[in-house]
Design brief:
Length: 292
């Protein structure tokens, strides 16, 4: 019974400022910090801190940053035996500016782009597994992993971020699709407002479970004829970096633990709301025991 996370492993370089940059502008920052990150790594750590057995599938560079990130994943309870250090490419890096609790991010994928279909060779998925992916690693690898997982009866969760159009074949292999407001509108080419107001269906062309994260407004999930709405939680936002990944990892762990969708979403929403009160991405993810 394992949560397999196929995804990016990055070194996050975080600068804080009073305002966000505009084109051609130079600002004086307030602080600079280095954190472990990458959507895949963040989600793997979140699932582990939520109590699941987790295995990471990915690549780093054969450099100091990569070594530190692999150690951090292992120390966080994640199996890193399928994380490969690649020579000649840098570890993925995210340049993040945080201002007024909101972030702007530029990601240099580096070694994450080398996560090929050979990365899942030898992985024997079972019906008790959950397989998680994002878009910081090649879509071809995700598709191959999802096909293998579905053939074994495992459940597949996709967070299509950084967002690009999702191939129809990949959607057909996805059990649970987790998107934010912007991702929903790009993927389904329809405004979100009517869906929130129950004036339109939200998952045209997608037959699985659709989970839409709405920031401070909470979460909406559509699964068959069921419509689940989880309210947002009022917290003082310090840094929203990694909140979506925290949600994703906790959701994967809860579903892996056979929780029903409503309680899984409630737990994931709680964890994400706690994470935004702490700086950093992976470093902000709470342990399950610390949640009320």
């Amino acid at each position: 019974m394992t949560v397999y996370v196929i995804g990016g492993i990055n070194q996050d370089i975080v600068a804080t400022s009073d305002t966000h940059l505009r084109p051609g502008e130079t600002l004086t920052g307030n602080d600079l910090n280095y954190y472990p990150g990458g959507k895949g790594a963040n989600q793997a750590i979140a699932a582990a801190r939520a109590g699941a057995q987790v295995a990471m599938v990915g690549c780093t560079g054969d450099d100091t940053a990569g070594s530190g990130l692999r150690d951090y994943l292992a120390e966080s309870g994640v199996d890193v035996s399928r994380v490969v250090a690649k020579k000649g490419v840098p570890t993925g890096t995210a340049l993040i500016v945080v201002a007024n609790g909101e972030n702007s991010i530029i990601v240099v994928l580096g070694a994450n782009e080398t996560v090929g279909t050979d990365s899942i060779d030898g992985v024997s998925f079972t019906a008790e597994d959950v397989v998680v992916a994002q878009f910081e690693t090649p879509i071809e690898t995700t598709l191959a992993a999802f096909k293998a997982a579905r053939q074994s009866g495992a459940r597949t969760l996709l967070n299509p971020s950084p967002v690009v159009p999702v191939p129809t074949e990949l959607l057909s292999q996805t059990d649970v699709l987790i998107v934010n407001e912007h991702e929903f509108e790009l993927i389904f080419e329809t405004p979100l407002g009517p869906v929130l107001n129950e004036d339109a269906a939200g998952s045209a062309g997608f037959t699985g479970t659709l989970v839409i994260t709405l920031g401070s407004d909470g979460v909406l999930a559509l699964s068959g004829n069921d419509r689940i709405r989880e309210a947002g939680r009022a917290v003082e936002v310090l840094d929203s970096t990694g909140a979506g990944d925290c949600f994703m990892g906790y959701l994967a762990a809860a579903l892996h633990n056979h929780q029903d969708l409503a309680s899984a979403i409630a737990l994931a929403n709680l964890a994400a709301s706690v994470s935004v009160t702490v700086p950093g991405a992976a470093s902000s993810i709470p342990d399950r025991e610390s949640l009320a």
